[in-house]
């Protein structure tokens, strides 16, 4: 059954790509979940599309160009939402939602003008089976940088997550740490769009930790369990997609749905037993 990963390079590259994404997905997803930034991240992932579309417009399907322009677009969306919320006195998540909708529409508009419906489908839902060795290299470099920076800001970020006022008392530069953390999230989303597209990339970032929280109690068990579940879902999703000719990225994300409902059922049963 697993011999297909050795026989077909496109499946092997797809598996390597998802495995590389797993480490930073769990690390970033942990803090996104406990800092209650899941919906903001979902909005942000859609806001990357105009930058990716601009890179596609001028440089074609160049992974480097789309990554750079997508990263710039993500930073602009975050910066504009913060500035707009200060000027308009609206909450930051409200302005971010507005920019996300406009960005998504503008990105789809640009891709539709330049490319074909197939290109638009790939931008929205990814092209995991088309990952090249060059794209794997870029993915590895970006994700390694994300993990290294996350390692160095882990302690102040954890203190901010537990009690932000206390973190300020300790003279931690909370605004700088926040911006740096969101920059890491943007970088991760930009490189993962190649696999899952702008509509599904946030799923691989959020679902592992969400499932881990349902199934495990201790933080170390949660993180390790989230990693293992991500690997299981990646392998099973790719195998099911290849065996039954299913759309790959949605199938892989739906594999997480099995564990999600198992965890949800476990949580409900456990809660009923305590009553």
Blueprint (SSEs and pairs):
Layout: H1 4-7, H2 9-34, H3 38-47, H4 49-59, H5 63-88, H6 92-114, H7 117-125, H8 133-162, H9 164-169, H10 174-215, H11 219-244, H12 248-274
Helix pairs in contact: 2-8, 2-10, 2-11, 3-6, 3-10, 4-5, 4-6, 5-6, 5-10, 7-10, 8-10, 10-11, 10-12, 11-12
Explain how this protein is built.
- The protein has 275 residues and is an all-alpha fold.
- It has one domain: ABC transporter involved in vitamin B12 uptake, BtuC (Orthogonal Bundle), CATH 1.10.3470.
- Helix content is 87%, strand content 0%.
- The protein has helices at residues 4-7, 9-34, 38-47, 49-59, 63-88, 92-114, 117-125, 133-162, 164-169, 174-215, 219-244, 248-274.
- Helix 2 crosses helix 10, helix 3 (38-47) packs across helix 10 and helix 4 packs parallel to helix 6 (92-114).
- The radius of gyration is 19 Å and the shape is globular.
- It starts with a helix and ends with a helix.
List its salient traits.
single chain; 275 residues; mainly alpha; ABC transporter involved in vitamin B12 uptake, BtuC; 0% strand; globular
Within CATH, the superfamily carries the name ABC transporter involved in vitamin B12 uptake, BtuC
The count of domains is 1
Rg from alpha-carbon coordinates: 19 Å
Tally of separate helices? 12
pLDDT average, as an integer?
Answer: 84
> What is the fold named in CATH at topology level?
ABC transporter involved in vitamin B12 uptake, BtuC
What structural class do the secondary elements suggest? mainly alpha
The major β-sheet equals: none
The low-confidence runs, each spanning 5 or more residues with pLDDT under 50, are none
Report how far the terminal alpha carbons are from each other: 44 Å
């Amino acid at each position: 059954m697993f011999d297909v990963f050795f026989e077909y390079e496109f499946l092997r590259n797809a598996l390597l790509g998802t495995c590389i994404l797993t480490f930073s997905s769990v690390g970033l997803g942990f803090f996104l979940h406990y800092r209650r930034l899941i919906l903001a991240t979902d909005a942000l992932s859609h806001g990357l599309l105009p930058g990716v579309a601009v890179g596609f417009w001028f440089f074609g399907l160049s992974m480097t160009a789309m990554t750079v322009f997508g990263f710039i677009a993500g930073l602009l969306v975050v910066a504009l939402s913060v500035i707009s919320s200060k000027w308009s006195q609206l909450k930051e998540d409200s302005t971010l939602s507005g920019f996300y909708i406009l960005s998504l529409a503008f990105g789809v508009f640009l891709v539709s003008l330049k490319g074909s419906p197939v290109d638009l489908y790939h931008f929205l839902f990814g092209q995991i089976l088309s990952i090249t060795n060059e794209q794997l290299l870029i993915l590895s470099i970006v994700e390694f940088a994300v993990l290294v920076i996350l390692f160095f800001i882990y302690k102040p970020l954890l203190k901010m997550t537990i009690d932000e006022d206390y973190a300020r008392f300790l003279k931690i530069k909370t605004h700088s740490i926040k911006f740096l953390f969101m920059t890491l999230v943007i970088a991760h989303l930009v490189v993962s769009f190649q696999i899952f597209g702008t509509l599904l990339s946030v799923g691989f970032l959020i679902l592992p930790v969400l499932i881990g929280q349902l199934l495990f109690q201790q933080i170390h068990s949660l993180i390790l369990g989230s990693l293992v579940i991500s690997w299981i879902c990646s392998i099973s999703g790719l195998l099911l997609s290849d065996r039954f000719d299913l759309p790959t990225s949605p199938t892989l994300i739906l594999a997480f749905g099995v564990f999600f409902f198992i965890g949800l059922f476990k949580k409900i049963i456990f809660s009923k037993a305590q009553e």
